[in-house]
Design goal:
The protein has about 300 residues and is mainly beta. It has 2 helices and 26 strands. It has a single domain (about 5-305), classed as Beta-galactosidase, Chain A, domain 5.
């Protein structure tokens, strides 16, 4: 299948080879050569994507403050990647063609577009598009492409490795917090919001909790800043088998946590695509704002940002 053709959406998308693009003052792309790392900016945030490493987001900064972990923390599990869900489709490790092998990169307007090779086991490809939004916002859009000969059911799955020591919170959904594979992390539900305060010290073993959210956002406060993810809320009945809308993995082996989101579980017939977007927003917390578990003013602060178009 030609990855530049979106037949399921009913139109033709033309993509051109990536060439030198000048940085724009408020938003745009910065690249040096085809398939080299490129940056998408929406002042004051900057997102760097490396096509040679699975099209991963390898850096996300707010005025130079880094939210993501690098290879100095773990040689393989770093930055923000994307997999098809459920994990039972491919077990472990993730399909290299989708997770860490080179993607073909292209310039698309003010953003970047990248396409993976086909994973021969699942028949799937992944396309990633990164576009700058309004001030401090960048939107990745992930598309699962069925390039095989058989129908597949899958859900989009974004996995973001973040630095330790922050406070994760998001509105609670309809189902209780659960666990998967490992002992659960210490999530608490206070006044309809799920909270997790990460400690600098590693746990004695890996931890993994799953949860249903609501309102379509999560937030991770760290170092006087907040990384907010905005997305379309997914009902529990639309989750992939054994999965959930929001997952938190805390590594017992290296100094990072994983902030994970999943989209709806759908059938993808041969030649069809399933697209899903997550808006990344980064802001500084105002002086005097209470940043701790149960802080109603912190939740209201994030809600105000999420609702501001």
């Amino acid at each position: 299948m030609n990855p530049s053709m979106t037949a399921a959406a009913g139109f033709l998308l033309l993509v051109l080879p990536l060439s030198v693009a000048a940085a724009q003052s408020q938003g745009g792309t910065e690249v040096t050569m085809k398939n080299a790392p490129g940056a998408v900016t929406s002042v004051p945030v900057r997102m760097t994507i490396d096509p040679s490493m699975g099209g991963r987001i390898v850096s996300f900064t707010l005025d130079g403050f880094e939210f993501l972990t690098g290879t100095n923390i773990h040689p393989d599990n770093f930055g923000s990647t994307f997999w098809p869900s459920p994990q039972s489709m491919w077990n472990w490790p993730p399909p290299p063609a989708l997770d860490n092998k080179p993607y073909e990169s292209m310039q698309k307007g003010p953003g970047l577009s990248l396409v993976s090779e086909q994973d021969l086991n699942t028949g799937l490809q992944v396309q990633k598009e990164f576009r700058p939004g309004t001030k401090g916002r960048i939107q990745p859009t992930y598309t699962i492409i069925n390039s095989g000969t058989e129908s597949r059911k899958a859900a989009p799955w974004e996995i973001t490795r973040a630095n330790k020591g922050g406070l994760l919170f998001f509105p609670a959904g309809k189902t209780p917090v659960g666990k998967k594979h490992f002992d659960p992390a210490r999530l608490e539900v206070l006044n309809g919001v799920i909270w997790y305060q990460d400690e600098k010290e590693r746990p004695s073993g890996n931890r993994l909790s799953i949860a249903d959210g609501s309102e379509g956002w999560t937030a991770y406060a760290i170092g006087g800043r907040v990384l907010i993810k905005k997305f379309r809320d997914v009902a529990p009945e639309d989750n992939a088998p054994g999965e959930a809308e929001v997952s938190l993995y805390v590594s017992g082996e290296a100094d990072y946590i994983e902030l994970e989101l999943q989209g709806p579980y759908r059938e993808i017939k041969p030649g069809e695509r399933l697209s899903w977007s997550v808006e990344w927003i980064a802001v500084e917390t105002p002086p005097g704002l209470v940043v701790e578990k149960g802080s109603a003013e912190l939740v209201d602060f994030v809600r105000g940002i999420v609702r501001h178009l």
